[in-house]
Specification:
It is a single chain. The chain is an alpha/beta fold. The protein is 34% helix and 22% strand. The protein contains twelve helices and 17 strands. The strands form four sheets. Strands 2-3-1-4-5-6 form a six-stranded mixed sheet, sandwiched between helices. Strands 8-9-7-10-11-12 form a six-stranded mixed sheet, with helices on both faces. A hairpin with a 2-residue loop joins strand 13 and strand 14. Helix 2 runs parallel beside helix 7.
Length: 439
């Protein structure tokens, strides 16, 4: 199911991006003292105690009037309510309680989602009484914090992690395969999902961006049980005129986060562009299982070399995805669509593949004999042993003399050896290198 998602919501200029950067441990969002500076959806990993989570900074507010701020905050809060497991509702302790805060508070209350109220800009003990008036929001205890100075964040995070769902328990009970269909608007995601479902679940038109929300559909076949997620199309930033499209981007990213298998659709007429590279790059970073579908293949004039050339061009564009398979389909005519779920099941197996420690260490020992690690600063990396610690994605821990001696090219070599020895086609692999003192 992925990590729990925490969204930071609040009106412009209360310090959402500053808190986001502090929790993410690095400066990611642009922080300026101007309302609406956070233009793009920003995601990062955070952790507190033994809990890891995905953090969303819901900026994207470009106010022209009070009414518009309120409308956009409502929308922002709606998306946070849909996608997040826990919401940090941030208010400004210096400015005090505003009407917009009350408006958003009533929405968040109705959502039934856990909300942690953070009163920001409480930079000293002298300012703490400023937090009391926020009890009037009826959102429980306000946590006075200073995101710029990092004060009292621990108490707030203790409260946040209390509300995390028990994913481990869910996963044991859950044999569903979650599949997210992603790609540009009008590439055929809804048509394909409708064909797989055998009904008209999504609205299918030729207007790009018709699917505004991520739509979940349940499907049970002989091959297994699936949740098919038809996500909103991602547009180029320059064409994002409506705020709603930005929030669609957020939905797409959270759908990727929550899915096991990501299916990227590419229009055969248009080929792949930076947009697809960006979205599938995110799935690649998440180490998800990935399948690339070239749709509308029925419209292409072709000979016996067309498909090979198309794959070659895509391999150049997606050079970081050399482990991902391609399938050429037509959602409209049904050409090869019956193979889509077969491939999804196969890649999901690879995403959950376990290798015994003995076999794993044999493969890595042979890899070391064939090619020694390079010398770095007069020292050489030594690998003592390897063990697999998890699946979804397959995760391997290498115990070594000094992780700093690992060269990225050697890490890539080790990953290639794992892929050559075991069937990990279509799935990311996570590799961690930990120091272990020589006995």
């Amino acid at each position: 199911m992925g990590k729990p998602i925490v969204a930071i919501v609040g009106r412009p200029n209360v310090g959402k991006s500053t808190l986001f950067n502090r929790l993410a441990g690095r400066r990611i969002a642009i922080v300026e003292d101007t309302p609406g500076v956070t233009r793009d959806r920003i995601y990062a990993d955070g952790d507190w105690l033994s809990h890891e989570f995905r953090l969303i900074d819901t900026g994207g507010i470009e106010p022209h009037s009070e009414d518009e701020i309120l409308a956009q905050m409502r929308r922002q809060a709606e998306i946070a309510m849909e996608t997040a497991d826990v919401i940090i509702f941030m208010v400004d302790g210096k400015v005090g309680l505003a009407d917009a805060d009350r408006e958003v508070a009533s929405m968040l209350r109705r959502s039934g989602k856990p909300v942690v109220l953070a009163v920001n800009k409480i930079d000293s003990l002298r300012d703490e009484p400023n937090a009391y008036e926020f009890y009037n929001l009826g959102m429980g205890e306000p946590f006075p914090i200073s995101s710029s100075q990092g004060l009292n964040l621990g108490d707030m995070l203790d409260e946040v992690v209390k509300h995390f769902p028990d994913y481990e328990k869910e996963e044991q009970e859950d044999d569903l395969i979650r599949v997210a269909f992603v790609g540009k608007p009008n590439v055929g995601k809804s048509s394909l999902v409708n064909r797989l479902l055998g009904d008209e679940r999504s609205i299918v038109t030729n207007i790009p961006g018709t699917t505004r929300d991520a739509i979940d559909s349940y499907l049970e076949t002989e091959q297994g049980r699936f949740v098919l997620v038809d996500t909103a199309g991602l547009r180029r930033k320059a064409r994002v005129k409506e705020e709603i499209e930005r929030y669609s981007g957020l939905r797409t990213m959270t759908s990727i986060e929550r899915a096991d298998v990501i299916v990227l659709l590419i229009d055969a007429n248009e080929g792949a562009s930076e947009q697809e590279e960006r979205i599938i790059g995110y799935a690649h970073e998440m180490k998800k299982a990935i399948l690339i579908l070239v749709n509308k293949w029925d419209l292409i004039e072709k000979d016996d070399k067309t498909m090979d050339q198309f794959v070659k061009d895509l391999r150049v564009r997606f050079h970081f995805l050399n482990y991902v398979p391609f399938l050429f389909i037509s959602a409209k005519t049904g050409q090869r669509t019956q193979k889509v779920l077969q491939e999804v099941v196969r890649l999901h197996k690879n995403y959950n593949r376990r290798i015994s420690t003995g076999v794993l260490n044999d493969v890595i020992s042979k890899a070391l004999m064939m090619k020694e690690p390079p010398v770095v600063a007069n020292r050489r990396l030594k690998i003592f042993y390897v063990t697999q610690t998890g699946v979804e994605p397959p995760t391997f821990i290498f115990f070594v003399n000094d992780p700093a001696l690992l060269h990225f090219s050697y890490q890539r070599y080790l990953e290639n050896q794992l892929r050559a020895s075991f069937d990990f086609e279509g799935t990311g692999i996570r590799m961690e290198f930990r120091e272990r003192k020589e006995q």
